């Protein structure tokens, strides 16, 4: 099952009894099944489920009877998973995040050191600081648990009951209400990538350099902003002709650049098409066409490629996980070499930019220009206007704040300058 191993305890279908001409169709069915989730999502789910299986084993959650066993890199997960086990796993991860990055641990350590100094207490050692897991990560974990049950013909019992201790008394509570309480009691402001607005994008592209790395990165950032798509969708693009397994294709003619996406979160099996005109974004056209020319990208091959340390363009597709590093590197060099910031300041400022910065930057730039949310959503492919509001809402609310109306805000003059 997508790289995992399933041992079914229930009798399996006896496919060996099918005629030969029908068994050949099983490969087609397998490929179609594999397309139900994006590969990055499946890999993320597998990592979460492997950790759940390991956690249950170490904590002694041995089930007397299981319908099936699924293995993730040697860790056996028995299904169905009891809701109480999932609740305890989440409660443990809220105390400590096993996936915390080095930077997250360091930031938590600095915060706890500051708090200890303020309270006149001994400063903690960095190894003693625990970084809690964010609720958004737990939401992904819950989706993984539901998915592995569904993939094995079951349903996770999220409507069942779990054990809890309230006022020192052991009680039974509904899983669904506990989950609602967990989300409310651990609510935090979502970390949002710093937006790459249109003016910054143009400044970066006009000063980025001429190495093959720079040319590739300029094309990437141009596409990130111009089409405002997710990084996984951009790196899946082929040039001109779609090859087998590719999730999208980019075409360019004299006047229009178009991407077609075949497997997106919001497409629901439909092909999504997005186009921009050369006269509207000539700088983006120049960046993408220069990359195609310099890298000698052939039709039917990946558009965005890996580059070797020897500056050789490789046939391999750029990985989604590498996009964040590419963006941070571009912004670091821009802040240091173009804006003259010292290395430490440039690195700190660049850290706030990610592979999502082009998407958020497009939303903010469009909202600042007065583009209706519905038209922004048509470009970004968001499921709802709520997500667009998450990116651009603060700026939009500030621009249209009632306090700007004379007689509402506390000012004497009638004219007010627009927010930059």
What would your notes on this structure say?
Residues 7-12 have low confidence and may be disordered. This protein is of the alpha+beta class and 420 residues long. The longest helix is centred in the N-terminal third of the chain and has 20 residues, at 39-58. 47% of the residues lie in helices and 13% in strands. The protein starts with a strand and ends in a 21-residue tail after the last helix.
What is the topology?
Blueprint: E1 5-8, H1 20-23, H2 25-34, H3 39-58, E2 68-72, E3 75-79, H4 83-95, H5 102-118, H6 135-151, E4 161-166, E5 169-174, H7 175-185, H8 198-207, H9 212-226, H10 231-235, E6 237-239, E7 248-252, E8 256-261, E9 272-277, H11 282-295, E10 305-307, E11 313-317, H12 320-338, H13 343-350, H14 357-368, H15 373-380, H16 385-399
Parallel strand pairs: 6-7
Antiparallel strand pairs: 1-2, 2-3, 4-5, 7-8, 8-9, 10-11
Helix pairs in contact: 3-6, 4-6, 8-9, 9-11, 9-14, 12-13, 14-16
In short:
With 420 residues, this protein is an alpha+beta fold. The protein has 16 helices and eleven strands. Helix 9 crosses helix 14.
Order of neighbouring strands in the sheet with most strands: 6-7-8-9
Topology as H/E string?
EHHHEEHHHEEHHHHEEEEHEEHHHHH
Number of helices: 16
Count all strands and give the number.
Answer: 11
Euclidean distance between termini CA atoms: 52 Å
In this structure, how is the largest beta sheet organized? 4 strands, mixed
| Average pLDDT number | 83
How large, in whole angstroms, is the Cα Rg?
25 Å
Strand content: 5-15%
Q: Based on helices, strands and strand pairing, what is the structural class?
A: alpha+beta
Choose one word for the global shape. globular
Low-pLDDT stretches: 7-12
Bin the helical content: 40-55%
């Amino acid at each position: 099952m997508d790289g995992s191993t399933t041992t079914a305890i229930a009798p399996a279908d006896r496919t060996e009894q099918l005629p030969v001409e029908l068994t050949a169709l099983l490969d087609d069915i397998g490929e179609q099944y594999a397309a139900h989730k994006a590969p990055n999502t499946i890999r993320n789910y597998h990592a979460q489920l492997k950790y759940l299986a390991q956690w249950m084993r170490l904590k002694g959650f041995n089930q007397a009877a299981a319908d099936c066993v699924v293995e993730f890199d040697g860790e056996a997960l028995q299904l169905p998973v009891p809701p109480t086990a999932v609740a305890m796993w989440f409660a443990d991860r809220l105390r400590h995040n096993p996936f915390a990055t080095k930077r997250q641990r360091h930031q938590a350590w600095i915060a706890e050191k500051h708090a200890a100094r303020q309270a006149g207490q001994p400063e903690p050692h960095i190894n003693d600081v625990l970084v809690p897991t964010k609720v958004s990560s737990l939401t992904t974990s819950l989706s993984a648990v539901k998915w592995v049950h569904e993939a094995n013909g079951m349903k996770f019992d999220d409507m069942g009951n779990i054990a809890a201790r309230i006022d020192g008394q052991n009680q039974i509570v509904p899983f669904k209400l506990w989950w609602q309480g967990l989300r409310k009691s651990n609510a935090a402001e979502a970390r949002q990538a710093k937006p790459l607005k249109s003016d910054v994008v143009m400044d970066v592209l006009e000063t980025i350099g001429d190495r093959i790395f720079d040319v590739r990165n300029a094309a990437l950032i141009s596409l990130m902003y111009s089409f405002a798509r997710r990084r996984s969708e951009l790196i899946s693009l082929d040039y001109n002709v779609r090859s087998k397994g590719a999730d999208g294709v980019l075409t360019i003619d004299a006047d229009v650049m178009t991407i077609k996406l075949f497997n997106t979160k919001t497409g629901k099996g439909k092909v999504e098409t997005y186009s921009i005109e050369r006269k509207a974004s000539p700088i983006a056209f120049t960046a993408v066409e220069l990359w195609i020319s310099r890298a000698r990208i052939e039709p039917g091959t990946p558009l965005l490629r890996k580059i070797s340390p020897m500056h050789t363009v490789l046939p391999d597709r750029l990985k989604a996980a590498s996009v964040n590093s590419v963006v941070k590197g571009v912004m670091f060099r821009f802040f240091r070499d173009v804006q003259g910031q010292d290395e430490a300041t440039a690195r700190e400022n660049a850290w706030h930019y990610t592979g999502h910065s082009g998407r958020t930057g497009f939303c903010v730039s469009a909202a600042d220009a007065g583009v209706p949310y519905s038209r922004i959503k048509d470009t970004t492919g968001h499921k709802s206007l709520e997500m667009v509001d998450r990116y651009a809402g603060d700026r939009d609310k500030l621009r249209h704040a009632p306090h700007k109306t004379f007689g509402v805000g506390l000012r004497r003059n009638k004219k007010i300058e627009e927010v930059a």
